[in-house]
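Hey, I was hoping to borrow your eyes for a little while. I've been staring at a protein lately and its backbone has me curious. You're getting the sequence in one-letter code plus the fold written as tokens. Would you mind checking whether the tokens look sensible for this chain? Here's the protein in full, and shout if anything looks odd to you:
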Amino acid sequence: MAEMKEWTLDRGLQPPVSFTGGLVAHQDGVGGRSLWQSLTGGGRWHSLSVFRTREGRWVVYFTFRSKVKGELGNREVFWCDHASDLPAIFSQYQEVAFPVLASRMLGDPASRQRHAVELMARYQRQVAQLLAAIPAATIKLH
């Protein structure tokens, strides 16, 4: 298990979430992208982190960032008791948050649609890589 320490996760206008635990996996959507990819993608990305608390719960921290002047970022925290519930948390975030994020994007409708599709594709790749790093999150068929 990762090193245990005290974490406080900021959620913007909502109260922060604090716990003792370790960072299990992290995917930063800005990493590995060229300057050109960042500029053509509108400067929007997600940072995703999964923690395991001292008590054994799983905490997921979603951070949406935008370098587009006038667009707001977003931070969300979800938790569950079983790693097998993690894929559902990521799916729920995609289903609920992406329409909101897309509606807040600036620009003409065609560019907003293109940027939203690109953002979702990067998010889905990040989630796949993150879940692959957590074997307990794999659903096993018998």
